[in-house]
TrEMBL record, chain A:
All residue ranges annotated as the GST N-terminal domain in the record: 3-82
Annotated Gene Ontology cellular component terms: cytoplasm
Domain GST C-terminal as annotated: residue spans: 88-216
Record carries keyword Transferase: yes
Keyword entries, A-Z: Transferase
The protein's name in its UniProt record: glutathione transferase
Known catalytic reactions: RX + glutathione = an S-substituted glutathione + a halide anion + H(+)
An example Gene Ontology biological process: glutathione metabolic process
One Pfam family linked to the record: GST_C
Domain of life: Eukaryota
Listed EC numbers: 2.5.1.18
TrEMBL record, chain B:
Domain of life per record: Eukaryota
Stored InterPro entries: Glutathione-S-Trfase_C-like (IPR010987), Glutathione-S-Trfase_C_sf (IPR036282), Glutathione_S-Trfase (IPR040079), Glutathione_S-Trfase_N (IPR004045), GST_C (IPR004046), GST_C_Tau (IPR045074), Omega/Tau-like (IPR045073), Thioredoxin-like_sf (IPR036249)
Domain GST N-terminal: 2-81
Catalytically driven reaction(s): RX + glutathione = an S-substituted glutathione + a halide anion + H(+)
Enzyme class of the recorded protein, top EC level: transferase
Official protein name in the record: glutathione transferase
GO biological process per UniProt: glutathione metabolic process
Pfam families associated with the record: GST_C (PF00043), GST_N (PF02798)
A GO molecular function held by the record: glutathione transferase activity
Length: 219, 222
């Protein structure tokens, strides 16, 4: 019996993009369903009753939630192609530590930049800059965070590329100027077809966030 | 020879999770108590990014972040498994350990907050307990089913720490009437021999938590 794979997502979600990349890396065919977060489908509410959030992966009718849990699930189920995590337990721990770091220090922090008033951004911006300094140090002379090949940490972080332009506009700093290695790494990842087709245009994401900020009365 | 060291600090529930996992797998380790007000060079060297405990050191290599440590322990010592075999069940277990981690600030706010902030945190915490009871545990004996697993360890603090926090704050969260399954689970969890033998002494914890609570109140009202 063929696998039925459905992804419930919302196009600007960096979390959804992670899952799209994972599915593309494994060559999995799936049905993509765009959710309207202001009018959530019954399917979403049933499949993720705890958080009622996207993304949700539905595999043969059973839902998996939380983007990194979903990526690990995809890696374990479709284990014969394009491994996303290393096999060695210590390297796996290393990868999980840094994806956890990305979640806490990049994604959580950056959310504050577009969801608060510009005047309150300075301390958030400082935090983000400190974080990127640590990540650049981690990258050093390697092409990817995983080493010679694109891996779990690269997948977890690269979706933030969709927000580079927004972070620069709202935070008033240049990622290219301040973090040339991160910038080069991002461009390297974007050369992969699986990544490029999973990440929307930065300016389109910026316009979307500008609209969101207007609706929230932030600008 | 396997060399396993655990840097921890009493009575951190995060440390206890690692202790429980190691003991459930009969892994011998050396425990090093850290003074968090005066962190050792070893801790700063082993966890330069977060500078926190617990840190597991195995064959000289450090691993930090509790959930990362637990997954590592599960992979290196796969006997007495704490995660299910099937990828879907594993994903469910990981979903709930992430839920616990993401929602812990609410419980911290319950313990730390004063006045209106405390009341709001209490309301939120009860909503979370309801979700955990209905969607996480259901009518199972353990979160993982018939035997203890990583998700049970993640929620282990509900079993040994919450009562002390409730007493220090003077507010009850986990009442048997409202959360019968979760309340029953706290008893079942504590009866697992490894857990029973490795819980901080509530008589020592209470004055510790009461003094923390007094500090929080003092700083909120000064």
């Amino acid at each position: 019996m063929a696998d039925e794979v459905i992804l419930l997502d919302f196009w600007p979600s960096m979390f959804g993009m992670r899952v799209k990349i994972a599915l593309a890396e494994k060559g999995i065919e799936y049905e993509y369903k765009e959710e309207n977060l202001w009018n959530k489908s019954t399917q979403l509410l049933q499949m993720n009753p705890v958080h009622q959030l996207i993304p949700v992966l539905i595999h043969n009718g059973k839902p998996v939630c939380e983007s990194l849990v979903m990526v690990e699930y995809i890696d374990e189920v479709w284990k014969d192609k394009s491994p996303l995590l290393p096999t060695d337990p210590h390297q796996r721990a290393h990868a999980r530590f840094w994806t956890d770091f990305v979640d806490k220090k990049v994604f959580d922090v950056s959310k504050r930049i577009w969801s608060t008033k510009i005047e309150e951004n300075e301390s958030t911006k400082k935090e983000l800059i400190e974080t990127f300094k640590i990540l650049e140090g981690k990258l050093r002379d390697k092409p990817y965070f995983g080493g010679e090949t694109f891996g779990f940490v690269d997948l977890a972080l690269i979706t933030f590329y969709s927000r580079f332009y927004s972070a620069e506009m709202f935070g008033n700093f240049s990622i290219e100027a301040e973090f040339p290695e991160i910038n080069a790494w991002a461009k390297r990842c974007m050369q992969k077809d699986t990544v490029a087709k999973s990440i929307p245009d930065q300016k389109k994401v910026y316009e979307f966030l500008v609209q969101m900020r207007k609706q929230l009365g932030l600008d | 020879m396997e060399e396993v060291k655990l840097l921890g600090a009493w009575p951190s529930p995060y440390c206890y999770r690692v202790i429980w996992a190691l003991r459930l797998k009969c892994v011998k380790y050396e425990y090093v108590e850290e003074d968090l007000s005066n962190k050792s060079d070893l801790l700063l060297q082993y966890n330069p990014v977060h500078k926190k405990i617990p840190v597991l050191v195995h064959r000289g290599k450090p691993i930090a972040e509790t959930n990362v440590i637990l997954e590592y322990i599960e992979e290196v010592w796969p006997h007495n498994p704490l995660l299910p075999d099937h990828p879907y069940d594993k994903a469910l277990a990981r979903f709930w350990t992430k839920f616990e981690e993401d929602k812990s600030p609410t419980f911290f706010a319950f313990f730390h907050g004063v006045g209106e902030e405390q009341e709001e945190a209490t309301k939120e915490a009860k909503k979370l307990l309801k979700i955990i009871e209905e969607h996480g545990l259901g009518e199972k004996k353990f979160f993982g089913g018939n035997k203890i697993g990583l998700t049970d360890l993640a929620f282990g603090w509900l079993s040994g720490w919450l009562e002390v926090m409730e007493e220090a704050v003077g507010v009850k969260l986990l009442e048997a009437n409202s959360f019968p399954h979760l309340k029953a689970w706290t008893k079942t969890f504590k009866e697992v021999p490894v857990i029973k033998e490795n819980l901080p002494d509530p008589d020592e914890m209470l004055p510790y938590f009461k003094s923390l609570r007094e500090k929080f109140i003092a700083s909120a009202t000064s």
